[in-house]
Amino acid sequence: MDIIKNSGKRVKFNPIKVKQTCLRAGASQILSDEIVEEVSRRVYSGMKTYDILKLIINLLNRKNPAVAARYSLKKAMMDLGPAGFIFEEFIKRLLKSYHCQAYFPPLIQGECVKHEVDIIAKLPKEDNRLTRIPLSQGKLYMIECKYHNTPGLRSNLKETLYVWARFLDLKEVYKFNYQEKINYPWLISNTKFSIEAIKYANCKNMRLLGWKYPREASLENLIEGQKFYPITILKSLDQNTKGIFFSKNIILVRDLISNSVKTLEKRLGLTGGKLEKLISEAKLIINS
After folding, report:
1. How far is CA 60 from CA 18, 203, 253, in A?
2. Cβ-based burial of 173 (10 A; exposed 0-12, middle 13-18, buried ≥19)
3. Domain 78-226 belongs to what topology?
4. Phi and psi of 124, rounded to 5°?
5. Distance set, CA 284 to CA 49, 69, 105, 253, 287 (Å)
6. Preceding omega of 82 cis (within 30 degrees of 0)
């Protein structure tokens, strides 16, 4: 049976993928099998993957709301916008959670022009705990973050060419000004990469991190490995409250549950009832 992806491409419906994603979100084997059975019964030829996703989330919501929220992680990552700076802050913190040094650098003068690099990152030589991200210890990485908020869009060859060109203009000059050489460029995206983007990056020994890539240490795997969920994963979060949270640098579910309701009321100007509901949902996602 063919279904239609967000890109418009027709692919075979694969119930195994549904089960794998349910399991990764924390569903039990029994619950995952129940969801697969129900979805397989209701899916039809030509059905869009977005509608299948909504169906799965609705089914999970009835049985396990925490798993349903985690299953919707991809959409939650797209809801970090509309601007990309929240995604950059999220990635910086995610890298730090895996013991990587990461910071926003000032404007950097390259050989030809000045560059606004998103993140500079490094894994200390003495730290060998960053096992899930394929980084070389003691090496410096120039990171560009590419954020998309439209389903179906991919980071493509154009983005990899852009990052590589910036790296070439910076690598030697950065060493001269900062006593340290940039060793690798790294493109991080909240979506998938095109085949050509991956091919070019592999040819240039350039790092990529995105949705479903690399296979064993993809973005969603790293997020789930640390339960590093964005607040946009909360079902009861509305757009106005999201804006207030972002303005106060609260972008993670763990940011929300690390504060008391009274502290958040004073800091955010929100009512206790709304905050209690969000915190209760956040704890359910983190602790289940």
Report:
1. 12, 41, 20
2. middle
3. Trna Endonuclease; Chain: A, domain 1 (3.40.1350)
4. -55, 145
5. 27, 10, 36, 10, 5
6. yes
Which CATH number is correct for 231-287, 3.90.1170, 1.10.10, 1.10.150, 3.30.410?
1.10.150
241 touches 274 (CB < 8 A): yes
Q: Tens digits of per-residue pLDDT, 9-68?
A: 899 999 998 998 888 888 899 999 999 999 999 999 999 988 998 899 889 888 888 888
Structure tokens of 154? 């991919």
| Cα–Cα separations (whole angstroms), residue 260 to 234, 268, 280 | 18, 12, 12
If phi > 0 it is left, if psi is from -120 to 50 it is alpha, else beta; for residue 155 that is: beta
138-169 per-position pLDDT tens digit: 789 999 999 998 877 899 999 999 999 999 99
Only one residue has tokens 């394929």, namely 134
| Contact call for residues 164 and 177 (beta carbons, < 8 A) | no
Residues 279, 223, 62, CA angle at the centre, nearest 5°?
55
Backbone angle region of 269, left / alpha / beta, with phi > 0 → left and psi within -120 to 50 → alpha: left
Reported as a single tens digit per residue, the pLDDT across 116-140 is: 999 999 876 655 454 566 677 778 9
CA atoms lying within 13 Å on the CB side of residue 18: 25
Instruction: Determine contact, residues 93/231, Cβ cutoff 8 Å.
Output: no
The CA distance from 244 to 236, in Å, is 14
Residue at 144: amino acid letter: E
Look at strands 114-115 and 10-12 and give their pairing: unpaired
